[in-house]
Amino acid sequence: NMKGYIWLLIIWTIIVYIPVCHWIWGSGFLSKIGFVDFAGGTVIHTTAGFAALAAIFVLGRRHQKDISMKPSNLMAAAIGTGLLWFGWFGFNSGGALKAGSLAAIAFSNTFIGLASGMVTWMIYAKLVRGKVDFVDVLTGSVAGLATITPCAGYIHPQLAILVGIIAGIICNLALSLQESRGWDDALGVWGVHGIGGFTGSILIGI
Questions:
Q1: What is the reported pLDDT for 59?
Q2: How far apart are the C-alpha atoms of 191 and 168, rounded to whole Å?
Q3: What is the pLDDT of residue 69?
Q4: Where are the extended beta strands (E) located within the chain?
Q5: Cβ(143)–Cβ(168) under 8 Å?
Q6: Could you say which of 32, 160, 165, 173 is the most buried, measured as most Cβ atoms within 10 Å of its Cβ?
Q7: Which of 13, 30, 62 lies closest to 204, judged by CA?
Q8: How confident is the model at residue 6 (pLDDT cuts 50, 70, 90)?
Q9: pLDDT computed for residue 4 by the predictor
């Protein structure tokens, strides 16, 4: 319900988001040892993804019978994903804090990560599951976006292709694990955002 949702937002923001944001972007201990996060792959996506997994463990599965992880309205899913794309270009480029060449590189890398993640996801789906559906297009693009976010301003566009390819494989494997374990994560928040953001953060160093 709405009351529980608001309480979750407040508690998560205070206990998780604000401390991690300070550690990385507020001259905290992680920034002092050289940890970087260009646009929130760790601060936002990794923390949200693993917080979602923790919530699943604490709250358990929904009580309804015959729970489906498939979207009930593909049009709404497509509109929502399109809005995510629009916003993502803004906050990834905004990680540069000003208009300029760095913002342009981050914008280009965002698009490339999105596209290569989406294409890789579809290829993986075809090879492993034998078919590609519209949800694969949407989910693959978000996986590419989540993974490119922490390194959007730190790599050349050629490497953004590689980041997207890795995202399309690693996040697919994470969702397969989620399904095999029966975790009730209808939007794949842990597998796409959590693992994607975490993978992108690791790839900065690599």
A1: 85
A2: 11
A3: 62
A4: none
A5: yes
A6: 160
A7: 30
A8: very high
A9: 87
Only one residue has tokens 């693009």, namely: 141
Neighbours of 111 (CB within 10 A): 19
* Cα 203 from Cα 19, distance rounded (Å): 23
Reported in sequence order, the residue ranges of 78-178 that DSSP labels E, i.e. its strands, are none
Burial of residue 170 (CB within 10 Å: 0-12, 13-18, 19+) is buried
Q: Which helix (H) or strand (E) holds 10?
A: helix 2-12
Q: What is the pTM of this model?
A: 0.93
Reading the block at residue 1, the tokens are 């319900």
Joined together, the tokens standing for residue 161 give 């292709």
Q: By the 8 A CB rule, do 90 and 145 touch?
A: no
- Indicate the helix (H) or strand (E) that contains 187: none
Q: DSSP letter at 154?
A: T
- Burial class of residue 187 in the structure, from the number of CB atoms within 10 Å of its CB (0-12 exposed, 13-18 middle, 19+ buried): middle
User: Which pLDDT does position 139 carry in this prediction?
Assistant: 95
